[in-house]
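In the current project phase, our protein records have gained a structure token line. A sample record follows, to show the layout:
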Amino acid sequence: MLTRRDLYKGMSAIGATLLLAPAARALSAVGAVDPLKFVDPELRAAAQAMLAQPVPAMTRQALPSLRASWVAPATLPPPAPAVDLRHIPIPHGEPAVSVQVIGANPRGAARPAILHIHGGGMISGRAQNMTSFCQTVAAELDCVIVNVDYRLSPETPYPGPVEDNYRALEWVYRNAAALGVDPLRIAIMGESAGGGLAALLAIVARDRGEVPICCQILLYPMLDDRTGSTRPVPPHIGGIGWSAEANAFGWSAFLGVPAGSDRVPPNAVPARVANLNGLPPTFIGVGAIDLFVDEDIAFARRLIEAGVPTQLHVTPGAYHAFDFVVPTARVSREFTAAWKSALKAAIAVRP
């Protein structure tokens, strides 16, 4: 099976630049504060390498080349779970949503399913960049994974990407028998921007009342457009992995208005949604020097106050996507074990 280290190696310049190298610009902005001294020792060499890389331009004109530089890891051969590409039709003439269905077996006993939403700052990434990762998780947890290739911003701003993911979720639920899925054990999961979209998806699913979700697994989720735009962060946070500048660009592209402004569409930003009651059990994991740490902790606190069963895992000395960058580090292994434990518990028993 592919390891998380192999997955990271399979990512080309975009994985190390758009998602990681904006930190180099952040380092110059913090002046005398060296973020490396806050990094866990096992993560430090990789952080130094990322900071040494060229910083990509965070402009709309640069997006095609940045997106093109993604290189998807090879799909795992048997005995890894098979990957089936499906296209979900969308009403009103919108493009069909492409999904990868991984590990479906309609002739077997109904198993849990995970709707997986990839990261990329709302502006980059594709489902196929996470195919091998999803195959590995599907095999380990004995579940079906539906990996969504939602439309990217700014070409498709809110609510387009959220609706793409909702259509995929609805499709899994309505076609559960044909996929070999238990319709009462469907989880949603995402990393970074994918975590933010998963949080929005859970809110939409709650409000529409059509599809039950058994849990949401949010890994360093992108939850608040105000972080790094109108809300400053301490100088040692966000210096490695995903910068305030990149965050403002990604959110502005997604929202269609400047990040942090008072013109944000209603319910487009998880942290701005007033009512969090009735959301599914939630796991939130983040590094202590990730740009998103404050917003993730705040969101977890609000979930707890709303009566939502919530686990929060904060990893000292960890920057954005550290578990993909250095998967063998102790903190990465503990982080991965924590979210897998939460997910296994949530999908193990029917509600």
User: Anything to note?
Assistant: The CA atoms of residues 95 and 188 lie 22 Å apart. Residues 1-31 have pLDDT under 50 and may be disordered.
